[in-house]
Write a structure and sequence with these properties.
This protein is an alpha+beta fold. The chain contains two helices and four strands, in the order H-E-H-E-E-E. Strand 3 and strand 4 form a beta hairpin.
C-alpha cells in the first residue's frame, strides 16, 4: 500500500495517523516498511529510530551504494538481518541484434 508523504521537510517522511489506521485495517497486520536514503547508507537515521515503529521490520535502500538492508525492530532497537547489493548493470546492457 502506497501512502503520501505528509511533511514538507527536506529528507523527511511522515505518515498521517489516519493512513496508518487505514493500512492496518486493510491488512491482517503491517509487517514492516520500505524507504530509501538518497544521500546516506542504508542504516537507520536518528529520525528512523525515534520516529519509526517500535516493533516490526524495515528495508532501507541506499541509492548511491545500490545496497538494501533488512532490519528487525524490537522496542526501538534496530538489528541488521541481511544486506544485499542491487546490480543495475542489466539496466544498461545493449540488446543484441
Amino acid at each position: 500500500m502506497r501512502k503520501h508523504n505528509r511533511t514538507t521537510q527536506p529528507g523527511g517522511f511522515l505518515l498521517a495517523n489516519k493512513d496508518l489506521r487505514e493500512a492496518a485495517a486493510r491488512a491482517s497486520g503491517i509487517w514492516g516498511s520500505f524507504h530509501s536514503h538518497p544521500i546516506s547508507e542504508a542504516d537507520p537515521s536518528n529520525g528512523d529510530i525515534t520516529g519509526g515503529p517500535r516493533d516490526g521490520h524495515a528495508i532501507i535502500y541506499d541509492l548511491i551504494g545500490d545496497e538494501f538492508r533488512l532490519w528487525r525492530i524490537s522496542r526501538y532497537k534496530w538489528d541488521l538481518l541481511k544486506s544485499f547489493d542491487f546490480d543495475r548493470s542489466w539496466l544498461f546492457e545493449a540488446e543484441d541484434d
